[in-house]
Specification:
33% helix
């Protein structure tokens, strides 16, 4: 992404029509036939991209088909929360492109920013996006969230934030909240059998302008935490590089 060309400073005013809506996602289970409908929106051209990403060690050890289903959970939940596709979304720590590339495939009219600090991964993703005819408005952004979250081009500019494996809850919330606009939603992958109230304490989240909305498990294997931005983030956050991890707020 070229830092000089900001494409989302006025996304609230220029919001595109919501092309389709996946339906309301309940705490347990997708609406009938939703998963198959979502699968059809994943461009088959991404198969080769994900296979290469997997070979390079950018995606972890879970089978690719399972990772795609996990990514589709983000699609369904964001749409359920916002009433349709977001006008823009940033995927924190996108790694090998999950769920970022799946989001871009399902939302071709949305600006999808794939953010990661690693040079090898972002170089791979830029090449993948440049060579993919279905990339829509996907962009790759390399940098530290603690730094980019203080840049006016990105600070509180996104209608949605996603995170599959960015970090511990406190660091994810602190960094993610710096990108999320008031009224927007953040969806974060949750491990199985986790205590949501312990991992995401309401008092700690409120320090970052966030409110816990729900913990969803529409697919038995995968869980998601949904947070909503209810007020602007304090100017103290995010703190300097590394501090959110070393000195967690909660």
């Amino acid at each position: 992404m070229r830092r000089g060309k900001c494409r989302f400073l006025n996304f609230w005013a220029g919001r595109a029509p919501r092309a389709w809506q996946s339906g309301v996602v309940a705490a347990e289970g997708f609406p009938d036939d939703l998963l198959s409908t979502l699968r059809e929106k994943v461009d088959p051209a991404l198969d080769a991209v994900f296979s290469r990403s997997f070979e390079l060690g950018f995606l972890g050890g879970m089978p690719i088909t399972d990772q795609v289903e996990h990514a589709l959970g983000f699609v369904a939940i964001v749409e359920s929360e916002l009433g349709g596709p977001p006008s823009n979304v940033i995927d924190l720590g996108t790694g090998g492109g999950m769920p970022g590339l799946v989001l871009a495939s399902c939302w071709p009219d949305s600006l999808v920013v794939l953010m990661d600090a690693n040079e090898r991964r972002t170089t791979f993703l830029r090449e993948a996006v440049d060579g993919w005819s279905g990339s829509g408005h996907a962009e790759v952004l390399r940098g530290r969230a603690e730094v980019l979250g203080r840049d006016d081009q990105f600070r509180e500019r996104f209608e949605a934030v996603t995170s599959r494996s960015f970090g511990l809850p406190s660091a994810t919330a602190e960094c993610g909240a710096s990108f999320l606009a008031v009224g927007g939603s953040m969806v974060i992958s949750e491990p199985p059998d986790s205590d949501s109230e312990v991992r995401w304490p309401k008092a700690g989240l409120r320090q970052l302008g966030l409110d816990p909305v729900a913990t969803l498990r529409p697919l038995v294997r995968f869980g998601y935490k949904v947070l909503r931005k209810i007020e602007p983030i304090d100017s103290r956050y995010p703190r300097r590089v590394g501090i959110p991890v070393r000195r967690p707020i909660f």
